[in-house]
Specification:
5 helices, 39% strand, Outer Surface Protein A, domain 2, Vitellinogen_open_b-sht, alpha+beta, single chain, 6 strands
Amino acid sequence: MIPEEREMAPHLRTALTLTNVDLDMACRYHRIPLYFGESQEGLFLNLATIFSTSDGIPKHLSLSIDSLFNGLFEKDTVSFSLTQQNLEDLYHRFMQNWNQMSGERASIRAQRSTRNGEQELDTIFEDYKIKTREAFEQTPFGLINLRINDIDQVQSSFNSC
């Protein structure tokens, strides 16, 4: 770890605590130097992951390359990142819908006769696409990003809405 990064780490932890970020997430960062001291040239490969305790797949994956040529350091010469939130829920919904399509469905009349008031309200909310604030925070999404020299080359996002 670079001394400046070590010095900044407690300040970042305080800032994350103040913004209610879940510090229970398993975060890993690795820097692999490919450096030649004689010529002051080289590359630094940076790998970062953030795993949440609630998801099996990582919330964030990042790979970046820093370069040092002729004594000039350039951060994030190339970077690739994947960010997601609740994509497992999207996968589970997809599989449930797939199973429902392959199985036989009950008739609409039979479904109506077994509904209670809460189910009727849920149906109305779904029909009019009414969502609670919690639903927005739990909406699955993903983002793939490729940057070269601090310019986005490819940025793709996907969500369930």
